[in-house]
UniProtKB/TrEMBL annotation:
Superkingdom of the organism of origin: Bacteria
Gene3D superfamilies tied to this protein: Periplasmic binding protein-like II
Keyword S-adenosyl-L-methionine: no
Keywords assigned: Cell membrane, Lipoprotein, Membrane, Palmitate, Signal
Record protein name field: Arabinosaccharide transport system substrate-binding protein
Cell membrane as UniProt keyword: yes
Signal peptide: 1-19
UniProt region (Disordered), positions on chain: 421-443
Organism from which the protein derives: Rossellomorea pakistanensis
Compositionally biased residues, Basic and acidic residues: 430-443
Length: 443
């Protein structure tokens, strides 16, 4: 039986909210408002809602550029930041009621399916999206599409990579560029454990985005098929979970992630002290290193994920926020044009990197001089970040989001990972089949 609207509004729990800018910003109780262009006479007011305060930085910069380049069409941008659940709930209720929605709003990817039910109350962006698809990682746009209409502008690629502590790897006698497959990774891990005081890796139990889901996606698998049917217990997913269990207990090259996930203070201290050689995370995780692991500056190198087999995919797109224009705006064309100016133009994509440190969806800017200018990310990691992205730009698979995506997150993080990875009371097949049966029963 389908969930009631009340459950959809208040019951969907998602742990993916950290993906676009920070757990702390998303969970803040304080609502913040900032007005850009409020002193310009005759400016058209546009409202923007977000759940990540950092995203306002991008829109502030964009509004200032817009007003400078378009003095005959200035805008007054009212940017409001809400707690994650509050913002998504308020938006859903406003769209259902037909009033109270902003002109422009961020929607986190795991919540997105809730706004695609029936006839979307959002405006298509095809006139602005279609011209840039050829130069973009198109799978990141498909996430926010329905029936050939593109409703959302992505915030980043979220390309998942492997971060290597080169100091530990050198001590172990391992050339990180020799690690091409997960089998190579295991063998390198054995050398790390044998020759250093560190483990190779950590496996999380409370955030499936930081190991299980990207490893599933790079195999061409998913949790749902194109028809929205749950396939969590398929062969590829069972084998992936078995691999995670094996690196812990069979190969003994990994430990459970301190704090359950790699975005906790406990983990940051552990990693900063050199207790593990690698981190699997999207490119946006660079900011976590800068903010929380200062002692690793100059030691970390970014490489593609190991492939499951030679020639296989070496990355996955994880996390994300699609920014949309609602059908309640009184300035539809201006709102769409400003959103495209902010997130779809070349300058806008360059600023996704320069302002936020995100990997921009338009891969044609990855080779531009602007993204290779010295900044705090290059100072920490060294050159070559965008060379890695260019290697893997065509290896990001589309993922299928449904209203039950948050249920998969809850089942994995509370039951599957606990029974398979921590307690070892169920096999991967048993745990995934039980979770699949439970989710199917929710429909």
């Amino acid at each position: 039986m389908k969930k009631s609207l009340l459950v959809l509004l208040f019951g969907l729990l998602s742990l993916i909210l950290v993906a676009c800018g920070g757990k702390d910003e998303a969970s803040s109780e304080a609502q913040e408002e900032e007005v850009i262009g409020g002193d310009i006479e005759g400016a058209t007011e546009l409202t923007f809602w977000t759940f990540v305060g950092q995203h306002v930085d991008l829109f502030r910069d964009s509004a200032e550029r817009w007003n400078k380049e378009n003095p005959d069409r200035p805008i007054k941008l009212v940017a409001e930041t809400y707690p994650y659940d509050q913002m998504h709930n308020n938006l859903l209720m406003a769209l259902q009621a037909g009033k109270g929605a902003p002109d422009i709003v961020d929607i986190e990817q795991s919540k997105y399916a809730n706004y695609m039910q029936g006839e979307p109350q959002l405006l298509p962006l095809n006139d602005y999206v279609e011209p840039v698809l050829e130069d973009s990682v198109s799978s990141r746009f498909e996430m926010y599409a329905k029936d050939g209409k593109y409703y959302g502008a992505p915030t980043h690629v979220g390309a998942t990579v492997m971060y290597y502590n080169t100091e530990i790897m050198d001590q172990a006698g391992v050339d990180i560029d020799s690690i091409q497959t997960w089998d190579d990774f295991v063998e390198a891990g054995k050398k790390v454990v044998e020759n250093t005081d560190a483990v190779m890796w950590n496996v999380g139990t409370t955030d499936y985005l930081m190991d299980f889901f990207p490893m599933v996606s790079q195999r061409g698998s998913d949790f749902f098929n194109e028809e929205g049917e749950v396939i969590l217990d398929n062969k590829a997913n069972i084998e992936t979970l078995q691999f995670l269990q094996d690196v812990l207990y069979k190969h003994e090259i990994a430990e459970l992630t301190p704090g359950g996930m790699n975005q906790t203070e406990e983990y940051y201290g552990y990693m900063n002290d050199g207790n593990a050689a690698t981190v699997l995370a999207p490119l946006w995780y660079m900011g976590r290193f800068l903010d929380n692991m200062p002692d690793l500056k100059g030691k970390m190198a970014i490489r593609p994920l190991p492939a499951w087999e030679e020639g296989g995919d070496r990355t996955a797109g994880m996390g994300g926020t699609g920014t949309v224009v609602t059908n309640q705006t009184e300035h539809a064309e201006l709102a769409k044009e400003f959103l495209a100016f902010t997130k779809l133009s070349k300058e806008g994509n360059i600023n996704l990197w320069k302002v936020l440190g995100f990997d921009p969806p338009r891969w044609d800017v990855w080779e531009s001089e602007e993204v290779r200018e010295d900044n705090k990310y290059y100072e920490y990691f060294g050159p070559g970040t965008f060379d890695t992205l260019l290697e893997i730009k065509d290896e990001i698979n589309e993922i299928h989001l449904t209203e039950h995506t948050p249920d998969v997150a809850t089942e994995y993080n509370t039951n599957v990972a606990e029974s398979v990875l921590r307690q070892q009371t169920q096999s991967p097949e048993e745990a995934l089949k039980a979770a699949t049966d439970k989710i199917r029963g929710m429909k």
